[in-house]
Amino acid sequence: MSEAVEVKTLIIDDREVSGRRGQTILEVARENDIQIPTLCHLDGLSEVGACRLCLVEIKGNSKLLPACVATISEGMEVSTHTERLQKHRRTILELLFAERNHICSVCVANGNCELQALGQSQGLTHVRLPYRNPDLHVDASHERFTVDHNRCILCTRCVRVCAEIEGAHVWDVMGRGINSLVITDLNDPWGDSSCTRCGKCVQVCPTGALFDKSKVGTEHPKHPDFLPYLNMMREAQ
Amino acid sequence: MSQTITIDPVTRLEGHGKITIQLDAQGNVADAHFHVTQVRGFEKFSEGRPFYEMPSLMARICGICPVSHLVASAKACEAIMSVRIPHTAAQLRRMLNLAQMVQSHALSFFHLSSPDLLLGLDSDPANRHIFGVVAARPELGRAGIALRRFGQHIIELLGNKRIHPGWVVPGGVTEPLSPAKRDEILAMIPEAYTNIKLAIEWYRKVADSFKPEIEVFANFPSLFMGLINEDESIEFTDGALRLIDAQGNILEDGITANRFTEAIGEAVEPYSYTKFAYYKPLGYPEGSYRVGPLARLNIARSMGTPLADVELAAFKQLAPGPVQGSFHYHHARLVDMLYGIEKIEQILTDPLILDKHVRATAGVNRLEGAGQAEAPRGTLMHNYKVDENGLITWANLVIATGQNNNAMNRGVLQAARHYIKDGKFTEGILNRVEAVVRTFDPCLSCSTHAFGQMPLALSLLSAEGQLLDHVTR
User: Fold this and answer.
1) Which of the following CATH numbers is that of domain B42-403: 3.20.20.150, 1.10.645.10, 2.40.10.10, 3.30.360.10?
2) For residue B447, what pLDDT is reported?
3) Measured between CB atoms, does B451 come within 8 Å of chain A?
């Protein structure tokens, strides 16, 4: 006899919804067409809860919880778009824009960038913080791809896709806090690394940090939607 | 007591700068300078960027002639890639560059200079602008605005954006031309002819009344440089450079982009952020030369299009050798525009213009590359060095305004000496000094690769350096 599915009912944005035990708030919200902004989350990859854009308010809990990792419970009352949350989300985006050099007009991801799209959808009109303008390098040593650290937001999608899906674990994170950098192997040039040249990291990168060398201007749409299918096919085997 | 006049900012220019006129103890002009007062540093901050990003990065130098930067930059990148772009891509780029020339010339001639030409250099400054032109001669104002729109709309159709189109890339262009867009451009051409003919006829009538200005507006012998084709016809996008002397003798011919720096050097003066280009064998400042519409018509033997050839023949009647008066830049600009419209029409009838093969691809095959093109206001050259991964290690841009810089400074001095006597001057006289600079249609933001507040100013200083008068608009 199969294990009975344990159903939890809860309220998200004044709507009664239900989900299976162990599901995250984000999963249940999206199943019910309630949109919560995300950046480090990607369907098909493990969660890290790093970007904090998906923070939600839970009634009776003074802390804000990231919807991508917080699981649902019976009777939970969740708010996803309060004024407080919107303010936090805008501040997070401002911090991201101020941290490195995000110049949309000359970026290869212009028009196809998740950070840019979030800035627009969250009503970000100004960055109130001083820009840090760090002097970060571009690694163009790889035959097919380039990494521009100026545009990296440290979401670690590349690290996760390389380790979890490709199984190569070429990408990792070096350093701490604001000085962190994604690196290939032990901080070797990408072109000299053990990279399998599969290109998954480029496809899942939400900004123009990882890009295909043959793409210039604004012609670089990315296709991270292949991941769930890839996982599904693997599970079927 | 001597004094200095400062015109700050100089108005109706693209970008901002100022003019200072130094008077001696008798109140006559001792010296005059045209200063470009901002620095931007595009050459520096492009270091470390992938070379194929350069066209879109460099186009941001200016919103008036981004296409010239796109083209010169893409050509420099193609030299690094060592590729020859498909014929159709070359033709499409040529059309884009001509469309930009037409719109930029329309801006210079109608929006910036026609107020002086139509309403008079001494007219009330409160009305001396494009709206004043529209009020006085609606059909002329309308023609100018329509010609600008003609060029802008072609840029938008080809590149999906009026300003900073991302369509030109190293190796060609990103998208072929669709039949619908070709037909839309062809449909705009008859109106463009009507408008440019109206402007040429009107200019012909008024030009004679500016004889005194023609005499002293940067009117002196100089060298001239511009792009031409092998058949000695005018060229904006490909071809090679020719340099002639004041008598019209050819000093250098077939200067390709990779030879540019063999022939041309850049000097620096303490009073301006814009460099001063010169022909190396003659040194600085003797080797200073002029570029742009006047230079192009002085160099070319033909325009290569029937209507513009008639106008070129008429232009060549202005002087026995090269035309030296910079006031005639206005005239040359109109001939350029007529040529541009005709050439766009010719390009659209090219049987291969709708071909789908519009891009060549390659990696880094050389560590240095240069590209040149004619911007509306003159020759433009981009030169890059890269490492083996294609990251820029060094960049140099030689801009038309830098190549005209010495002539503009000499012209300002010439006009100031002529008009300002005994320390006396009027607003109309200062406007004439500004108008000398306007004939060149300099782009100050390009020339310093600079940004900041608009536009230009003039100051009058005493021999002791005391500010006597200052004109700001």
Assistant:
1) 1.10.645.10
2) 58
3) no
